[in-house]
Amino acid sequence: MKLFNTLTRRKEEFEPITPPNVGLYCCGPTVYNYAHIGNLRTYLFEDFLRRALEFNGYVVKHVMNVTDVGHLTSDADEGEDKMRKGAEREKKTVWQIAAFYEKAFFEDMVHLNLLHPTTTCKATDHIAEMIAQIKKLEENGYTYISKDNVYYDTTQFEHYGELAQLDKQELKAGARIEVDPNKKNPHDFVLWFVKSKFGGQDMQWESPWGRGFPGWHIECSAMSSKYLGDQFDIHCGGIDHIPVHHTNEIAQAEGATGQHPWVKYWMHGNFLVLKDKEKMAKSGENFLTLNALIAKGYGALDYRYFCLQSHYRKELMFSWEGMDAAKTGLRRLKEKVLALGEKEGEINRQYLSQFNSAVADDLNMPQALAVVWALMDDPRIKDADKLATVQEFDRVLGLKLTEPPGFKIPPEVAKLIVERDAARENKDWNKSDELRNKIESLGFKVKDLPDSQAGGTTVEPK
Ligand code: AMP
Ligand code: ZN
User: Fold this and answer.
1) Contacts of 364 (CB under 8 A, 6+ apart)
2) Which of 122, 222, 268, 307 makes an SS bond possible with 133, Cβ 3.0 to 4.6 Å?
3) Which residues contact 200 (CB under 8 A, 6 or more apart)?
4) What is the C-alpha separation between 250 and 235, in angstroms, rounded?
5) 27 alpha carbon to ligand 2 midpoint, in Å?
6) Each residue's pLDDT tens digit, 283-327
7) Vertex 137, ends 136 and 139: CA angle to 5°?
8) 166 Cβ partners below 8 Å, 6+ apart?
9) DSSP assignment of 122-175, as one string?
10) Does an H or E element contain 238, and which?
């Protein structure tokens, strides 16, 4: 497979460190509000990536964090505490806010048919790991204390800014960065807050530097090291993470272990934008959720189809006309698949190879979709073979093409699936069986992915 690596700005042949295993880390949601469909576009891209890797025979360990502490409204250390803002808005505690929106996010994942990660990890469950990494950085000479907070001194890390290609001049001048007078250098960032400008934080922990809470970036480098080791294959996120969050994650991970490069391939999904090119943001007013699409009569998989039609590295403009076209496209495709009957056939090798060349070419999903349509409209191929082939393709597309048009997972079933995925991730097999029975009693058949794929409950009508 060829994948575009942000580190080198080139498409590169994908060679994992220890094939066939692939370590994949995806920055997860900040759970202070619903995910918007822009965020979900990024998770869809990551799902296509994981499915494409598995389709090509790799065994993927997919780790995703849940940010439930410490992320400010700006990716740098300025702005308000997002979790606290959510709590004030809804007159709840930050812990209640985190628990509620985490569940809501996983329910969105179920509706979009996103594979449950092999490991999900909450920041607040990994404070000890973060403290340990900050201690390592302190031992290695990368930190300083200013006004009681612990900062990362970016001038001590020789590779600082390579991912974002920040040049040295810019690093010095700190262009565009609001300067915190307590920092020695404009790009320095907080590892551990003891003195917060907000005061009265609910989420606080003891640390060698005093009672406080972690900076945002440290959670991803600490948790990815814990679950994927000191070096791993692929790290993903949206393009907004390149200049600050991922740049700082690299400085932390490599500063702590001395290993370079920490991650072999960095992949970033481009933004979903609105008509006037405005970016969709959780903190802005232009905020569309998956539930808002569903309330307007679209299926979650219509949005999946909408995203499949554009390449992940291109900006994608959202429009209702585009959603209508996607809805029609998916319905027509499903009708064609349904009309193929149920006879068992053989996978057509020629189409399979065309499909996989598209997928393996840096996830060219629009091209892969064109291959699907060409297959469906090819009079030379027997219906049974078309069916077998399209079912194979659907392992990557995840469109549930063999479910009848209009197939939807009801909200109460989605809730049970989220609980069951968590039980399976924790290897709590009794609970997982109990939840399977509950789901089946609501009229659905449960299909499990292999154990190596953790969670992974999928359902179909009985
Ligand atoms: P957050 O929950 O804010 O941490 O963001 C979750 C993911 O969504 C991150 O990978 C972001 O880079 C990504 N993201 C944020 N806004 C957009 C957008 N408008 N389009 C696509 N991805 C986005
Ligand atoms: Zn992250």
Assistant:
1) 311, 358
2) 222
3) none
4) 11
5) 4
6) 555 789 999 999 999 999 999 999 999 999 999 999 999 999 999
7) 65
8) 160, 187, 243, 247
9) EGGG-HHHHHHHHHHHHHTT-EEEETTEEEE-GGG-TTTTTTTT--HHHHHHTT
10) strand 232-238
Is residue 65 within 6 Å of ligand 1 at its C-beta? no
Q: Give the pair of three-digit tokens for residue 226.
A: 């814990």
**Rounded distance, CA 404 to CA 143, Å?**
58
Hey, what are 2's tokens? 């060829």
Nearest to 220 by CA among 250, 200, 198, 199: 250
Of 123, 84, 80, which is closest to residue 102 (Cα–Cα)? 123
Per-residue pLDDT tens digits for 128-150: 999 999 999 999 999 999 989 99
Q: Does residue 102 line the site of ligand 1, with CB under 6 A?
A: no
Q: How many angstroms is it from 38 CA to the middle of ligand 1?
A: 6
The single residue listed with the structure tokens 């193929």 is: 340
Pocket test for ligand 1, best of 30, 36, 42 (most atoms within 8 A of CB): 42
Beta carbon of 70 within 6 Å of any ligand 1 atom = no
Spatial contact of 373 and 389, defined as CB atoms under 8 Å apart: no
- Residue by residue, DSSP assigns 189-223 as EEEEESS-SS---S--B--TT-SBEE-SHHHHHHH
